[in-house]
Amino acid sequence: MPSTATLTERYISATIRSLTPEVQDDVRAELEGSIADAIDARLEQGDDPAEAERAVLTELGDPGVLAAGYADRPLHLIGPRYYLVWWRLLKLLLIIVPVCAMGGVAIAQAIERAPIGTMIGAAVTVGISVIVHVCFWVTLVFFILERTGADTGVKWDVDQLPEPTQNGAGRADAIASLVFLVLGVGAVFWDAFIGFFPTEGDPIAILNPGLWPWGITFFLGLFVAEALLTVVVYARRRWTIAAAVVNTLLAAVFAVWSLTLLVQGELLNPEFLRFVFTDNGVTDETMRILTVITGFALIAFPIWDIVDGWIKTARARRG
Predict the structure, then answer these.
(1) What is the three-class DSSP state of 268?
(2) Which of 147, 251, 268, 288 could form a disulfide with 305 if both were Cys (CB 3.0 to 4.6 A apart)?
(3) Are 139 and 86 contacting, i.e. CB atoms less than 8 angstroms apart?
(4) Rounded-to-integer distance, Cα 163 and Cα 159, Å
């Protein structure tokens, strides 16, 4: 078993070796004195000298941590001064940047007529890469700020206190949803009988007239089902798992139905497309690109509706 002097010296050497030469002697003297005093106190209580020395050094802890305290050097990557700013910015960027990058890659692959497997693989690969880069570079910036002591310029005051979290089941949410649904139904009828797109003659409908009556009836049925769901959620004053599941099914049915019609060329009025695009020199390749972008929009909005429903459900369960 090593002697008391040897253990103490090993501990002190491990502590001061990462310190600057200017402070090593002072720290050595301080540690020697404090360790000796602590050992003497234990010896007075009847402890064995070797065990007393070992206990004192154990209480002092890792010499690297002790040295960091003497050097005023943080051992954390992001400290409390910057942590919340780092975390909030990182979450915001991880919500926005990967989704935009994956969407852009998927659209580009679709325009190039890539197989669906290739499209998904490319989007996922880019998404993972973007997530890694966002995490690394944001953390690196805050690491530098932490080590240099720079000011982020973010100051907190009481005006930044968040409003109470809403679960999407209040009266205002219900009214807004119903108004939106009514406007949607009204837009369908307006498009069919009056037309949104003016011409020198009769207005041209945007939706394919061939959808009447059964296609439009199915479409309006989805609107009615969504309205009923809104009423049920408001009546219960909260989102439930059942409501989220129904909302998911409605959004998925709408996405699949509208996307299928778009791919088959049965969603939009051919006369409208010809008058607006073909007759104005728009090429078939450009029309295909516009179709791809429209298709992604028909997928993106239902996905957002699904995610929003489950977020509200999670908030309601936490509440």
Answers:
(1) strand
(2) 251
(3) yes
(4) 10
* Integer Cα distance of 314 and 308 in angstroms: 10
User: In angstroms, rounded to a whole number, what is the distance separating the alpha carbons of residues 297 and 258?
Assistant: 11
CB 299 within 8 Å of CB 252? no
Which residues have CB under 8 Å from 143's CB, separation 6+? 77, 78
Find the angle CA(69)-CA(72)-CA(77) to the nearest 5 degrees: 95
Run of H or E residues at 37? helix 21-44
Nearest to 317 by CA among 116, 168, 122: 168
* pLDDT digits 0-9 by tens, 52-94: 888 888 888 888 888 878 776 766 777 777 888 888 899 999 9
Q: What is the pLDDT of residues 135-183, one digit of tens each?
A: 999 999 988 888 787 776 666 555 654 555 555 566 777 788 888 888 8
Give the closest residue to 301 by CA, choosing from 259, 264, 261.
259
Domain limits, the chain:
4-71, 80-152, 171-318
Those residues whose C-beta lies under 8 Å from the C-beta of residue 253, and which sit 6 or more positions away, are: 222
List own/partner pairs for 105-113 with CB under 8 A and 24 or more apart.
106/296, 107/292, 107/293, 107/296, 110/292, 110/295, 110/296, 111/288, 111/289, 111/292
Terminal alpha carbon distance of the chain: 60
| 10: nearest Cα among 67, 63, 82, 73 | 63
Question: What proportions of the chain, in percent to the nearest 5, are helix, strand and coil?
Answer: 75, 0, 25
CA 146/CA 165 separation, integer angstroms: 32
Question: Can you say how many angstroms the Cα of residue 234 is from the centroid of all Cα atoms in its chain?
Answer: 28
Gap between the Cα atoms of 316 and 313, Å rounded: 5
